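ugh ok fine here u go
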Amino acid sequence: MTKKIKHTKKTTPALPSKTNCHTGQKLIFKTAEGIEVYGGGKNRQGGWHKMDPLPQLAMGPSETLGGWGVGSKTEVPEGWSCEQHLEVVTPPLMLSLDWPDFSIPNVNKYFWYAVIDDIREHGITRISTQCAGGHGRTGVQLAILAYLLGTKDERAAWPDAGVLTEWVREQHCVHAVEAKSQQQYIADVCDIPLGENKIHEPTLNYGGYGGWSDGKWSGKAKVGGAATAGYDDPLFGDSNYGRIIDQYGADFCPHCGDEPESMIEYGDLCGACGKDPQESTSTDTTSLKKEKVEIQHCPACDFDVIIDDECTHCGYDLKIGASKASEECFDCSRKSMDRDTFSGIRCVPCHTIEHAISMKTLKLEPKKGTFNVKCMECKKFVPSNLIASTMIGEGYVCFKCSAKPKKEVKV
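structure:
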């Protein structure tokens, strides 16, 4: 049986869309010691490379830190005097974390205590925190750094992880800290109570994880055969709010309710009961058969978990591709569709020239009047709105190549 799921957005309680919630790499807070901490998302024109001057320390999930060139890419023969006139830029120190999206890093609290000691010992006063979208994992970093670098009075103002999470959202973005496991991790590292559950969204089991009661969207998602609270119910009225079961794994077991310290990776079994979290029982059958479903896919990477019009795998914003609006290029004044501009500032040709990239990377579609851009990783020409990052002097990287490989979903 094939079911088609219509993705319906949450309307109560209303939250600001992720579409324009934040861009760039901005100063989030400054400690009493004078340490500046910045935050942002790689896929939102953020990241350490956007800072001027560059930070002394850049930290975040490993897949979001690399791939950015700084300084001149010009190469000259060894010993030639012209080398002294090239721009030499030293990249920051990198703290690259093993950290899956919508989950927690593979390090314990003592790692963070040592990081704080290292920051002070090495005189670090300018820190960049980042992840893909600048929400969940960035929010966790900001919360931990604020608390551990904070004064006694500041810590007293954050009696639990719920209050601390709200403070981070006030300083940075309302979507910061996106999973229950992340709020729990903040509590564990900072050695404070968990506090009130501050996770906005209930788990939506896309891809057949638990199925749907009658194949129709009724506002209630099933986790382990039991429907969670619907969108019209109180936000935190159900214990499954904020829990994750997706293509990467699960942060809890729907069979026994166990919540392990690290995510149960896709294909692995629950350590407590030995069952597969991806297999959830149905209310009308005793079998654990998964049903194949047809769901909306990301046009950039073909991933099938879309929340608030944003792909949870590569960070692509579906609203950009759908936009019919036009923007005037800052340089040439040529009007282009919003999807054919970079950050709504420059058209594709002017952006390419500005960043010293060969015009051979562009291919005009005469009938549409739009440009396809060649990705330097996969060597394919893709619509310009599917480009995730610009490598100065080198080329472009599409969203699909910029995101880590996804795991196939078994059906």
